[in-house]
Specification:
This protein is mainly α and 194 residues long. Helices cover 62% and strands 4% of the residues. The chain starts with a helix and ends in a 14-residue tail after the last helix.
Length: 194
């Protein structure tokens, strides 16, 4: 890793898209300004920060909000709906995935906000609340990342290229950059992940 910036540039498209660049994963990504982005990560984050920022601004300016109970359980319900609909492959189009991710991000914002305003102050037991939110976030991200990797491997194992990254059209662009930039040498990659 003597050239970390060149390595990141070589694998850069995968860093933002998180899915192979093939038709099997077309509904999982969206192209913005010529770059492919993972729908889940992108719209989860956008909707989370937008909803959390809006809730915080309303709360700080004294606007009446639903009780913490409704915020928390509304967020839990939205998260469960999003996760279950994803598990059962409901709305597998790009638009359906986008809506599910927007719901999930907003729902997590409701849960996070309801925890942070416990005690009518963000600063009341702040360290404990922050730790709790971090653990919830870390657990959810770990589960969702594991699920994503499992789904990708299941799809790729059934593909005609059967996880042979050097000839897979979905990874060809990245693998060729890794070869061209000296991170891989002939024969180093076949059926193994990199």
């Amino acid at each position: 890793m003597r050239r970390p910036l060149l390595f990141l540039k070589s694998v850069g498209p995968f860093l933002t898209a998180h899915h192979p660049f093939c038709l099997a994963f077309k509904a999982h990504t969206i192209t913005l300004r010529g770059r492919r982005w993972c729908i889940g990560c992108t719209f989860n984050n956008i909707s989370f920060f937008a909803a959390f920022g809006l809730l915080t601004a309303l709360w700080l300016n004294g606007f009446p909000l639903p009780s913490r109970f409704f915020l928390f359980y509304g967020g839990v319900s939205g998260s469960i709906f999003s996760i279950i609909s994803g598990h059962f492959k409901l709305g597998e189009t790009t638009e359906g995935r986008l809506v599910r991710k927007l719901v999930l991000g907003c729902s997590f914002a409701l849960v996070s906000f309801s925890i942070l305003i416990f005690g009518n102050s963000i600063f009341y037991l702040f360290e404990q609340k922050f730790f709790l939110l971090f653990m919830i976030y870390f657990t959810l991200v770990s589960i969702m990342s594991g699920k994503r990797m499992w789904e990708i491997s299941q799809t790729c194992e059934k593909c005609e290229y059967s996880m042979q990254w050097s000839i897979c059209p979905g990874f060809n662009n990245i693998v060729s950059k890794l070869y061209r930039n000296g991170f891989l040498k002939n024969g180093e990659i076949s059926t193994e992940t990199f």
